[in-house]
């Protein structure tokens, strides 16, 4: 008898894809083991650091990860962790990227995910199969083996798809007048790897998001001068030799001009201007989706195309606590697929997304920031938990995330020296340097 278990294709073996595979494997009565397609030869996605920063790797693939050599996390491990898999308690709260990769390795190993990953298989095309009324329909997934000697392509049928391909790979380049006339070195933060090449240079960083601010910290000890150009409130706690100036008005051959009229010499211009969503393997129109100001939509609960509710785009939101967020989205998606969490009608899902967008605009939000869920992320995750019937993320995750945010706003140079200790689902305390023997420093919250 043919199996009636659902076959799910997971695209990508970064944190989100590993999480999807782990939970599919946990419901063997409903789901066949997943097939995880991973274009590279290693799991971990963003957390796989490579020195290479050319446009392409040896196989001609785009370099996926924007990781740099000396990155330390901007969230403490107590908030970063998947809710069902804590980090090693002997580690400090803020980790080097290699420790996060080791964590993802042990997560994959613990839950037996590795055997289900097809490494070096790049998904090229995902198309829905015409479906009869009431049936799931399913999908054809076409993938090619990324191998220099053998070109192999397969097309396989699946009942459902989890797209887990990340969105920090394709640089967004803002239209700055004169950018193409700049004679110095021009790069996007995607290609930044280490500070040494910028020794004694005048560096202008464009944008003060997480990358711009962190690169200012990285470069200030070695560069002759660092300018952080941005439109927001001044960033607190940057080293004295980092100058904050307004956005760029225009770029000359060796200088940059800011909107307040000031002008600075520049050897290097680093665009820390964010990334674009990219789904080259999807025909958005065919799925009832389109490119929008904020990325792609409409997506019910930020992840389901209303017209094709057996495909899920995991992890599109920004300003979130990524791993717990993936965990909730995956469990919700699996509850939908298993029938435990029926979705509203197509029309109701589409109007719900529109209602949310209007609400966002009414609250003064810009359309292009619709996916920056920030403070709504907590009620969003709680809502998914309630709809799908899984335990909500413990409140201590929010408490620690918000404490980190406050302390980062107070001083970006010092917030990573904090160490947290969990005391329960809604209790934590700060401790001094945690060498397995934590010393409490302050009242428990
Ligand atoms: C510089 C930087 C610093 C960050 N710091 C933090 C931090 O401190 N804490 C934190 O929690 N988060 C941080 N993040 C966010 C980070 O992106 C998430 O934590 C998480 O790693 C994203 O996982 P993902 O699985 O969604 O995507 P990714 O990690 O990008 O993984 C996607 C995977 O899909 C594969 N893939 C892509 N296309 C295809 C295809 N067509 N076929 C097959 N495979 C494909 C890729 O090879 C990759 O392995 C940071 C991000 C960046 C860029
Ligand atoms: C940078 O300048 C300092 C002081 O002039 C000099 O000692 C140092 O060697 C220079 N470094 C590089 C990499 O040029
Ligand atoms: C941030 O912390 C650094 C290092 O302790 C300190 O020198 C600096 O004065 C602090 N800045 C602010 C704005 O508090």
TrEMBL record:
InterPro entries: FAD/NAD-bd_sf, Flavin_mOase, Flavin_mOase-like, FMO-like. Pfam families: FMO-like (PF00743). Its cofactor is FAD. GO terms for molecular function: flavin adenine dinucleotide binding; N,N-dimethylaniline monooxygenase activity; NADP binding. Transmembrane segments: none annotated. It comes from the Eukaryota. Coiled coil: none annotated. SUPFAM superfamilies: FAD/NAD(P)-binding domain. Its EC number is 1.-.-.-. Keywords: FAD, Flavoprotein, Glycoprotein, Monooxygenase, NADP, Oxidoreductase. Belongs to the flavin monoamine oxidase family. FIG1 subfamily. Belongs to the FMO family. This is Flavin-containing monooxygenase.
């Amino acid at each position: 008898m043919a199996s009636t278990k659902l076959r799910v294709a997971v695209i990508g073996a970064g944190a989100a894809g590993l999480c999807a595979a782990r939970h599919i494997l946990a419901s063997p009565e409903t789901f066949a083991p997943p097939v995880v397609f991973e274009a590279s030869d290693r799991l971990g996605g963003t957390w796989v650091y490579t020195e290479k920063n050319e446009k392409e790797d040896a196989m001609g693939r785009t370099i996926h990860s924007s990781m740099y050599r000396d990155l330390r996390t901007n969230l403490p491990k107590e908030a970063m962790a998947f809710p069902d898999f804590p980090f090693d308690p002997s580690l400090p709260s803020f980790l080097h990227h290699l420790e996060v990769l080791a964590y993802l390795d042990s997560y994959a190993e613990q839950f037996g995910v590795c055997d289900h990953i097809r490494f070096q298989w790049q998904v090229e095309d995902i198309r829905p199969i015409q479906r009869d009324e009431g049936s799931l329909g399913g999908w054809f997934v076409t993938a090619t083996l990324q191998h220099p000697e053998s070109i192999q392509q397969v097309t396989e049928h699946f009942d459902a798809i989890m797209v887990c391909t990340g969105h920090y790979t394709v640089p967004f380049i803002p239209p700055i007048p004169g950018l193409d006339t700049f004679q110095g070195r021009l790069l996007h933060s995607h290609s930044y790897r280490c500070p040494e090449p910028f020794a004694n240079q005048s560096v202008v960083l464009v944008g003060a998001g997480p990358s711009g601010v962190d690169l200012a910290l990285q470069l200030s000890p070695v560069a002759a001068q660092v300018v952080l150009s941005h439109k927001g409130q001044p960033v607190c706690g940057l080293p004295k030799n980092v100058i904050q100036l307004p956005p760029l008005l225009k770029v000359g051959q060796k200088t940059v001009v800011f909107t307040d009229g000031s002008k600075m010499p520049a050897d290097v211009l680093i665009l820390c201007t964010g990334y674009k969503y990219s789904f080259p393997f999807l025909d958005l129109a065919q799925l009832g989706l389109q490119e929008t100001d904020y990325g792609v939509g409409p997506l019910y609960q930020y992840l389901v195309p209303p017209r094709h509710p057996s495909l899920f785009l995991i992890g599109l939101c920004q300003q979130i606590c990524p791993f717990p967020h993936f965990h909730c989205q995956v469990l919700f998606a699996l509850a939908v697929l298993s029938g435990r969490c029926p979705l509203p009608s197509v029309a109701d899902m589409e109007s719900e997304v529109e209602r949310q967008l209007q609400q966002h605009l009414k609250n003064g939000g810009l359309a292009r920031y619709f996916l920056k869920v920030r403070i709504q992320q907590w009620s969003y995750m709680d809502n998914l938990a309630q709809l799908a019937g899984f335990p909500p993320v413990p409140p201590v995750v929010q408490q620690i995330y918000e404490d980190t945010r406050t302390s980062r706003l107070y001083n970006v140079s010092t917030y990573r020296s904090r160490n947290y200790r969990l005391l329960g689902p809604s209790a934590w305390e700060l401790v001094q340097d945690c060498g397995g023997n934590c010393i409490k420093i302050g009242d428990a919250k």
